Amino acid sequence: MQSPNKSFLATPIEFLKGVGPDRADILKKEAQIFTFGDLLKLYPYRYIDRTQFYSTQHIDNTQTYIQLKGKLKDIRELGEGRGKRLTAVFYDNDGEIDLVWFQGIKWILNAIDTKETYVLYGKPSWFNGKLNITHPDLEKLSTYTAEDAGTFRAMYNTSEKMKTKSLDSKGISKLMTTLISQLKPEHIVENLPQSILSKYKLLSRFDAIKNIHVPQNLSLQNEALKRLKFEELFLIQLNLLQLKIIRKRERGIFFEKVDHYFKNFYEQALPFELTNAQKRVLKEIRKDTLSNIQMNRLLQGDVGSGKTIVALLTMLMAIDNNYQAALMAPTEILAQQHFVSLKEMCDKIGINIALLTGSSKTKERKKLLADLLEGNIHILIGTHALIEDVVQFKNLGIVVIDEQHRFGVAQRAKLWKKNNVPPHILVMTATPIPRTLAMTLYGDLDVSVLDELPPNRKPITTVQRYETQRIAVFDFMRDEIAKGRQIYIVYPLIEESETLDLNDLMQGFESICRSFPLPEYNVSIVHGRMKADAKDFEMQRFVKGETQIMVATTVIEVGVNVPNASVMIIENAERFGLSQLHQLRGRVGRGAEQSYCILMTTHKLSADGKKRIKTMCETNDGFKISEVDLELRGPGNLEGTQQSGNIDLKIANLATDGPIIEEARKAAIGLLDEDATLEKPENATLKYYLQHQKGSSNFWSKIS
Ligand code: ADP
Ligand code: MG
Q: Considering the entire predicted model, what is its pTM?
């Protein structure tokens, strides 16, 4: 095994030439840089490449900043007020590209000379299906003396305080150059096995670190970036897959038979024919529960794909084998609704089902907990309250977690301890997530997909409407209600200004009540500030069809099921995220009738806002929507992923590095296939590294 020559990397940062005590202090406080090694881990966020001139023919939007040489023509001032802008065409011998300025228009108009040749430096991006460069740097070729001329340099983010000590990007860059000049191959441990380096054509770790900071040229910088991204993603995949392998050695409960509960229900109480996807997933689950190994399965399915019935049938398998089952939901409303709809079905076949939530009364709670321990309760439904230690089962066989994204890995792990042999675990996601993200977030789970909606569903028609079209929207609502349909109107709720939002909601409610008066129309209202029983009362009125319109905040977002509701109106739709819009829309289109989703927006939308609304109007496919969401918001902001600490990436990007994720996963699978416990000598350094890197130990402590 290559032994790390730690002393160099562990050298305190004050010993680097150019650092001294003052700067060392700032580096420690502002950037947690204590040693040489820490400094090397401060990765650049982009590069200035002024070593070469590109041709306008070779521009694409994968480039960051590029340098061009050419002239300007067709200079135009366009738009009014805020929309005011200046456009020009930049051309060289090969072609042209549009330029746009939104600021400093007058100055640029004065300065530009169409006879001059310029050196342009900027970042190409797509706009309206065409490439352009916004706010480029321009310098006359005749006087081109840019400080950076001919350089290829890394750019670093630093703080205001660092800048006061001249530790701006350039300052860091200087330090980095000094450090890299002293760096020798023996200082850097190669943590990837040689076989993987050659198979995936990766730079050595030493070369990668050198070229990420002080690139010799563009292609080496690209390779350095790829190597470091690969390494980061590969280590994550190794962790997840090893976890999966360890689990596969974990004894699981054997569900020997499928007996009368399952059969009775299937033959007599099942309200519809299962879709082929539902049947396939049930077979996958059945196979797991017959394997003597604990099931850890993720069920992905779009809203309305029928996950609940799969959950129930799975729980019946447990009950047929004298085990109990638990179903965990993220909110009280959803837990309640699962309880109500499942109870109806369970009563038919003599199954005892109970509900436990935060608002269960002490006395009921005591009785319930006692019954649970006695084994008198077959299925327990609840919220997070289920994880608490006081909740003890007689023999828990399976836990279904609905809307997984709100539960972390650690919470999942707590559930295992609720039985001697860990119960089987089925997690169901509310929102489909892109494949590459699933690989990273749920890489330790087996995955089933419900890729088929129940038959006779008509795709929901989605449209955008403005406030000025409100009267037409009201007319449309009256028509739908006349046909016997029900309508949701949802208002955004943003935590920082809850009062303000509540005002919006109440005003909306009043205006609806005026336009849809009693006795002909009845209107429900539900929001987060209401007491649980008041909320429930209003919900139930709507569920029973006593009210035609439900005015609500996003408390109704998840899971609510009223098949007769055919119109979803979302107010200030631009304020919602994509996955939330998709979830809300999923509340309609559950019956046989044509359903509609109306997105009310203002005229002023941000570019992202426009894209979200457009995406919603164009597609009903949750997987497509999640791809766009990932692209727009980045993985860190994707709903629900914040808590999952294992995607706190330093250099890779889950939204854009899909191909590297796939490769890294493939490489990890290949390696573990040959050497599951990393015993082979050639994998020794990797094993050592996995056990000692900070990230992975955190990761492991969360699991166990
Ligand atoms: P989700 O996957 O969003 O949790 P649900 O389980 O709530 O979806 O199911 C949505 C609706 O579809 C429910 O009204 C349910 O009864 C109905 N449903 C589920 N499976 C089928 C099926 N195979 N045929 C017809 N309707 C179904
Ligand atoms: Mg559901």
A: 0.71
